[in-house]
């Protein structure tokens, strides 16, 4: 049986034949027609050479911009040697990256995955596995917070409890409870004899760029200590230098027991990691968890190259400085355009602008002016420029934002 050509299908049915896009699931909003062919640093380019200033970074993924020479060299060199093995063999680059991560924070052990949601899932299993291994099999419930986002797999959706994300995929509660963000009284009430741990984002991303208060972070840590609970942080978006410290919780002088990382750790290559203390990590014995591709040589080569850049002297101080400049200048724009934007929030180079006009309209206006941003909850525009963005591109971004605000105010 021969298949009909697209032209023949159209002639027979009067309906246009499916195009290349129609082979994809329709689970994303219709993509913008922009097609980028390459990028350099903080800019993306179309086939006809139009340059767009990238303040989205693949949603906090391309942490050092596009085509960074050090990352390209690391990936290219490894690609010519070895792509994949299996974790039944030693992968020295994974051991090195794990050691570098643990030497930089509270953790003693690392599990490598491919994404943020996989890192979160590993953390959830580690919480329950630890409680079971230490004689508390009845402790399995985990508390999350409203407006959170932890990924798209079933347990990650359940811990966040966002109805629009859960839809009909989760018929039961999967052993998770939710309380209001920073509501200490609700949190205390939610803790019961079956509670195993608490999960939160130090800076909420999808729910609105909202840093947690130092006081609440310390109260959660104290409650975990008091009740024997595991304290887990989701730093998939806010970690890896985005906040102005290597890990966002380091701003609060509080350490977790488990931490999920991804996004910027691979600089654009899929890498996820779940970090734990020794007490928790040692309970994840042979057979408790695994990943076919997690920790593969390609990912580990790039992850180590990203760490090279992150650990350069002065790197985090520069992120803090640029973040302060960006926030200060944006707050001045709030004063000048109060009918268009109302406030600025964030930490380091993870910044949200709360709009009074629809944030989707603001996103489109900025895109018309060749600047790429994201949007998130609370009617915010999300700015996530590369950590190494130049001062010139910071200034250019501010100029584009002001021009967009002026258009709304005049319109």
| Tally of discrete structural domains | 2
CATH C-level name of the largest domain: Alpha Beta
Mean pLDDT: 93
N-to-C span? 59 Å
Helix content: 25-40%
Give the beta-strand count.
17
Written overview of the protein:
With 411 residues, the protein is of the alpha/beta class. Helices cover 37% and strands 18% of the residues. It contains 14 helices and 17 strands. The protein has helices at residues 6-13, 57-60, 69-79, 92-102, 116-133, 154-160, 163-166, 184-190, 214-227, 278-281, 297-310, 315-336, 359-368, 391-410; strands at 36-40, 43-46, 51-54, 109-113, 141-145, 176-179, 195-200, 203-204, 210-211, 230-234, 258-261, 272-276, 341-347, 350-355, 371-372, 374-376, 380-383. It has a seven-stranded mixed β-sheet, sandwiched between helices.
What keyword list fits this structure?
411 residues, alpha/beta, Aspartate Aminotransferase, domain 1, Aspartate Aminotransferase, domain 2, 2 domains, seven-stranded mixed beta sheet, four-stranded mixed beta sheet
Q: How do you describe this structure in short?
A:
The protein has 411 residues and is an alpha/beta fold. The protein is built from 14 helices and 17 strands. It has a seven-stranded mixed sheet with strand order 4-12-11-10-7-5-6, with helices on both faces. The protein has a four-stranded mixed sheet with strand order 1-2-3-15.
């Amino acid at each position: 049986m021969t298949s009909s050509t697209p032209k023949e299908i159209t002639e027979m049915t009067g309906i246009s034949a499916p195009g290349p896009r129609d082979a994809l699931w329709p689970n994303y909003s219709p993509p913008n027609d922009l097609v980028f062919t390459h990028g350099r640093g903080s800019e993306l380019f179309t086939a006809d050479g139009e340059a767009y200033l990238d303040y989205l970074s693949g949603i906090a993924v391309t942490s050092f911009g596009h085509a960074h020479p050090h990352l390209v060299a690391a990936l290219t060199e490894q690609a010519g040697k070895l792509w994949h093995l299996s974790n039944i063999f030693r992968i020295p680059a994974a051991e090195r990256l794990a050691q570098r991560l643990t030497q930089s924070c509270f953790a003693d052990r690392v599990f490598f995955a491919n994404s943020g949601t996989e890192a979160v899932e590993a953390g959830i299993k580690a919480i329950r596995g630890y409680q079971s291994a230490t004689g508390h099999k009845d402790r399995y419930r985990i508390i999350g917070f409203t407006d959170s986002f932890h990924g798209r797999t079933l347990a990650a959706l359940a811990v966040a409890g966002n109805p629009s994300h859960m839809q009909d995929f989760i018929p039961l509660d999967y052993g998770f409870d939710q309380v209001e963000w920073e509501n200490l009284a609700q949190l205390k009430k939610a803790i019961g004899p079956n509670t195993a741990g608490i999960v939160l984002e130090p800076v909420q991303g999808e729910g609105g760029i909202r840093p947690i208060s130092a006081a609440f972070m310390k109260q959660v840590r104290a409650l975990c200590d008091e009740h024997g609970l595991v304290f887990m942080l989701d730093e998939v978006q806010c970690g890896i230098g985005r906040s102005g410290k290597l890990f966002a919780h380091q701003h609060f002088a509080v350490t977790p027991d488990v931490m999920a990382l991804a996004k910027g750790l691979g600089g654009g290559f899929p890498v996820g990691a779940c970090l734990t203390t020794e007490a928790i990590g040692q309970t994840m014995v042979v057979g408790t968890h695994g990943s076919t591709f997690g920790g593969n040589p390609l990912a580990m080569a790039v992850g180590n190259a990203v760490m090279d850049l992150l650990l350069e002297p002065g790197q985090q101080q520069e992120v803090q400085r640029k973040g302060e400049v960006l926030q200060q200048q944006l707050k001045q724009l709030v004063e000048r355009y109060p009918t268009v934007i109302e406030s600025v929030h964030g930490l380091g180079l993870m910044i949200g602008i709360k709009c009074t006009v629809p944030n989707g309209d603001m996103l489109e206006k900025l895109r018309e002016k060749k600047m790429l941003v994201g949007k998130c909850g609370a009617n915010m525009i999300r700015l996530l420029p590369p950590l190494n963005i130049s001062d010139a591109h910071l200034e250019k971004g501010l100029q584009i934002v002001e021009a967009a605000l002026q258009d709304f105010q005049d319109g």
